[in-house]
Amino acid sequence: MGGFFFHKRNNLIIKGVFYEEHEPDEYDGVERFFSDIWFEFGRTISPDEIKAPKGTVFEKLRLYGSSKAYSGLLSRKGDVLISNIFNSIDYIGEGLFRVEKSRLYGIVDKEGRTICELKYDKICDLSEYTIGVVKDGKIGFIDCFGNIVIPIDYLYWAWNQNAFKDGKVLVEKVEDDGERVLEYEIDHYNNIVSKDIKTKDIFGLDYYDDFNPFSGSTAGNIDHDILDAYEGDASNMWNTD
Question: What is the pLDDT of residues 166-197, one digit of tens each?
């Protein structure tokens, strides 16, 4: 890190480092450890120093100045690629960064260009050049340019990987009757590719009990009654003595 002169600038703190791994070049035989590197930074800046991307929702943010508490992005030379106006910033791959402000998420590329505005409740990691985006409890997928390629129609569950693997991703959707959930796999074109479509009963114990420690049921992964620990007396459940 000694070659990075900017780390001693006044009011500048380096919060983290992101890098893109690089495979050895099969043509020239040169081995490289990374192809690019970026630094998450924070610093106190005045309003007239902040340059928000024009023509996007970022331009409308209240840019009265910024403190070290907010995150931005520096190049390896110390150039500001993304101003430190965000609550968080994370690298998701292919030169793309997930940014968050006031609990809304967007995507900015390594040149500071807006790929996806601040409008989603969650943005997943990139997988096979596709990114899961969540809004109002539903998930869909966008490409690396911010275009929606799979509509935001599927149920979002945090325990699902929500990532493509071998051209497929597991999704769940409520049936028309509103009482059951279909679970199956789709491809990058939103086509169903599962041979076995599973149906879950939304109100059935088998759907919820794996995640409900107070159900007292023996369904799913729970192999005991929760009242066993309280000698059958429910009034003792909150007694920690």
Answer: 999 999 988 777 778 888 999 999 999 986 77
State both tokens at 149: 């390629």
Residue 108: Cβ within 10 Å count: 26
Which DSSP string corresponds to 73-122?
Answer: EE-TTS-EEEEEEESEEEEEETTEEEEEETTEEEEEETTS-EEEEEEESE
Question: How do the domains of the chain map onto residue ranges?
Answer: 1-120
Question: Rounded CA gap, 144 and 41, in Å?
Answer: 24
Tokens for 179, please give them: 């009482």
Taking the model in full, what pTM does it have?
0.68
> What 3-state DSSP class applies to 37?
strand
Closest among 22, 68, 62, 65 to 45, alpha carbons compared:
65
| Lookup: tokens for 12 | 């500048």
Listed residue (85, 106, 87, 88) closest to 96, CA to CA: 106
Tens-place pLDDT, residues 6-29: 555 667 888 888 877 656 555 555
Identify which has the larger pLDDT, 186 or 66. 186
Of 100, 112, 31, nearest to 73 by C-alpha is 112
DSSP state of 5: G
Phi first, then psi: what are they for 182, rounded to 5°? -95, 135
Burial class (CB in 10 A: 0-12, 13-18, 19+), 39: buried
